Amino acid sequence: MMDLNNIKNVYFIGIGGIGMSAIARFFNEKGVKVSGYDRTATPLTRQLEEEGMKIHYTDDITLADKEANLVVYTPAIPAAHTELTWFRENGYEVVKRSDVLQEITRSLFAITVAGTHGKTTVSTMIAYILTETGYGCNAFLGGISVNYNKNFWSSSKAVAVIEADEYDRSFLKLSPDIAVLTAMDADHLDIYGTPEAMEEAFIQYTHNIKPNGTLIAKFGLHRSKELTATNKLLYSLQNDVANAYAENIRMNNGGYVFDVVQQDWKLEQVSLHLGGMHNVENAVAAITVAQILGIDGEKIKAAVGTFKGIKRRFEYVVKRDDQVYIDDYAHHPEELRALITSAKALFPGRKATVIFQPHLFTRTRDLADGFAESLSLADEVILLPIYPARELPIEGVTSEMIAGKITVPVKIIAKDKLLEFLQTQETPLLITAGAGDIDQLKEPIAALLKK
Can you tell me whether residue 305 is helix, strand or coil? Predict the structure, then answer.
């Protein structure tokens, strides 16, 4: 078992990943020497370099730090990676990101957030509330907090808030004191095989909660009775059968004002400056965690009122009277449904144009009908070619699979032709969505719209 306190030198393979970079920052802030490899330089890796980490971008063992007494790799790295193979063959301690998080949940009071969607927002919201109210926490997040412009921050308080990722089953190594579960929709079927197998993993996640720990699960999840913990609370957007829910919700300038109700507790006039009704529900979950920890209600309310969200989660890139441009990480049919319905409700009467980049060939193949159904909620759709990420192409699986089933006007446009196309279009409500490299278009599109 690794002792995190005795590590002097750590090397990361895939250091630029959102989850990996949070752990790299954790070690770096402890004064450990941190270096690593990634395939390409990004704004995030440049930030890590500015923070003192040495990073290279070619798979070359002569550039790797052979003095490392711990090597951490991401499951997205191919098994035949030269550096990874060399470290394994030469007797180094080589672990996955999830092994480090496992050790952190053993040694600290751990609040973990899992679910096929919502986990980044809920975990960031919890970490932000705990920090802003003075309670304190170490945060390991899967997105960049707009307030702090980072995905990790530390505290002397022995509390960790961790986004628990279901990809590669890595979240099953965690042993939380408080576990949140936001959703159990089918995803990552390339790993789990069937929706049932994926549900089993989420059920197992709740079985790993520490004795006397607490589960805060979304009301109405399939197989909810099999989710176990000493203490179990259910939260909901508006269903008053749940233990915690919102009522009296009003839309307000692209955000919401609402009350949070629990059996013997109520927080009135909570103000959330984020779009998306799903974010009201996310706030109910985060506020419930803070309340369980005994944080004062007025302090919680003040923190939620200053929360600016996460980059690429219902992010207002341009917000003017004549033009709204929202960018979002949505890459699952249910996320797209929540994104499009919320945007249309907040800005009624505007033509909604959605530009979507499908992520992964397997996900496109498995969920094509769901994608088409959700995207058809827009007024017009532009599809980019599929972003492959870690996968090789699958014959017959292209963006056409989705386009052929969409019931509103749809075009498929190459990424490098998109800006040229947008110059000729009226897009009073524009949304870009996807988990690939579509985010590289965010600034150029914003510049075009500001002209």
Answer: helix
Eight-state DSSP code of residue 147: T
- The alpha carbon of 91 is separated from its chain's Cα centroid by a whole number of angstroms, namely 34
Q: Are 213 and 179 in contact (CB under 8 A)?
A: yes
Q: Is 127 strand, coil or helix?
A: helix
Mean pLDDT of the chain: 93
DSSP assignment of 47-116: HHHHTT-EEE-S--GGGS-TT-SEEEE-TTS-TT-HHHHHHHHTT--EEEHHHHHHHHHHHSEEEEEESS
Q: Using CA atoms, how far apart are residues 291 and 339, in angstroms rounded to an integer?
A: 28
pLDDT tens, position by position, 385-440? 999 987 899 999 999 999 999 999 999 999 999 999 999 999 999 999 999 999 99
How many CB atoms are located within 10 Å of the residue 354 CB?
A: 28
Sign, Cα dihedral of 421, 422, 428, 434: positive
Question: What H or E segment, with its residue span, contains residue 337?
Answer: helix 333-346
Residue 397 DSSP symbol = -
Contact 451, 427 (CB under 8 A): no
| Spatial contact of 211 and 228, defined as CB atoms under 8 Å apart | no
CB count within 10 Å of CB 147 equals: 16
Could you report the per-residue pLDDT of 234-255, keeping only the tens digit for each? 999 999 999 999 999 999 888 9
Report the alpha-carbon distance of residue 415 to residue 137 in Å, rounded.
40
Residue 324: name the closest of 440, 446, 419 by CA: 446
Adjacency order of strands within the sheet including 231-236: 150-153, 138-145, 159-163, 109-114, 178-181, 214-218, 231-236, 244-252, 255-262, 265-272
Q: Which of 202, 163, 210 is nearest to 183 (CA)?
A: 202
What's the pLDDT score for residue 26? 94
